[in-house]
Amino acid sequence: MRAGTGVFLMVLLGFAAPALASGGGGHGFALKEHGFYVINFVIFLGIVVLFARKPIGKGLRERAEAFSRRLDGARLKYEETQARLADAQQKTDGLEAEKAGLLQRMREDALRQKETIAEKTLAEGKKIRATTSNALDNEKNRLDRRFRADLALASLGRAEELVAEQWKSLPHGAYVEQFAEALGEQSTTDGGL
Q1: Under a CB-based contact definition with an 8 Å cutoff, are residues 57 and 45 in contact?
Q2: Cα–Cα distance measured from residue 60 to residue 71, given in angstroms and rounded to the nearest whole number
Q3: In the chain, what is the straight-line distance between the N-terminal and C-terminal CA atoms, in Å?
Q4: What is the pLDDT of residues 178-187, one digit of tens each?
Q5: C-beta of residue 141 within 8 angstroms of C-beta of residue 133
Q6: How many distinct structural domains can be found in the chain?
Q7: 144 and 84 both lie in a single domain
C-alpha cells in the first residue's frame, strides 16, 4: 500500500511541476520561487495520507462490502426470479398440455353426443313414422268403411228410386192390386183366413 502511495505522490509531483513552470513571467522552475509551493504540497499530501488513509480505506472497504452485499442480494433475487420463471414456464407448459387434453376430451364428448343425438333422432323419426303410418292406415280404413257405407246407402237409395220408377211405369202395380183384391175376395168367401 505504501508503494502505491509513493507512486501516487510522484505522479502528482510530475504533473504539478510543469504546471508551475508554465505560469508567471519567469523562465521555468525556480527552487527559491516555486520550491516552497512544492514542499508545502508534499507536506500537505503527507498529512492527508497520514491522517486520512485509515478513514478513507475504511470507507472504501465499507463501500466495497456494501456493494458486495447488494451484488449478493441482487444475485439472490435473480436466482429467485429465475426459479419463479422456471416454475411459471413449467405451469404454463402444463396448462398448454392440460388445455390440449381438455380440448380433445371436449371434441370426443361432442362427437359422442352428436352420435347419441343422431341415434335418438333416427329412433324418434322411426317411431313418428310408425305412429303416423298407423294413424294414416287407421284413418284410411275408417274413411274406406265410411265411403263404402255411404256408397251402399246411396246405391240402395238409388236402386229404390229406380225400382219405384219402374214399378210405376210397368203394369206390375196393377197386377199386384188385382192380386190383392182377389185375395181379399177369396178370404171373404172362404170365411177368413
Answers
A1: no
A2: 16
A3: 177
A4: 887 888 888 7
A5: no
A6: 2
A7: yes
Q: Within this chain, do residues 22 and 110 fall inside the same structural domain, yes or no?
A: yes
Grid cell for residue 34: 516555486
Task: Tell me: do 89 and 133 sit in the same domain.
Answer: yes
Residue 50's domain comprises: 2-149
pLDDT in tens, 95-114: 777 888 888 999 999 999 99
Instruction: Please state whether 157 falls in left (phi above 0), alpha (psi between -120 and 50) or beta.
Output: alpha
Separation CA 11–CA 68 (nearest Å)? 31
The DSSP code for 26 is S
Q: Is the pTM of this model over 0.70?
A: no
- In-domain check, residue 168: yes
Cβ pair 16, 41 in contact under 8 A:
yes
The residue written with cell numbers 251402399 in the block is: 152
DSSP assignment of 65-105 equals HHHHHHHHHHHHHHHHHHHHHHHHHHHHHHHHHHHHHHHHH
DSSP letter assigned to residue 28:
S
Is residue 36 included in any domain, yes or no?
A: yes
Q: Indicate whether 191 belongs to any domain.
A: no
Q: Is residue 70 part of a domain?
A: yes
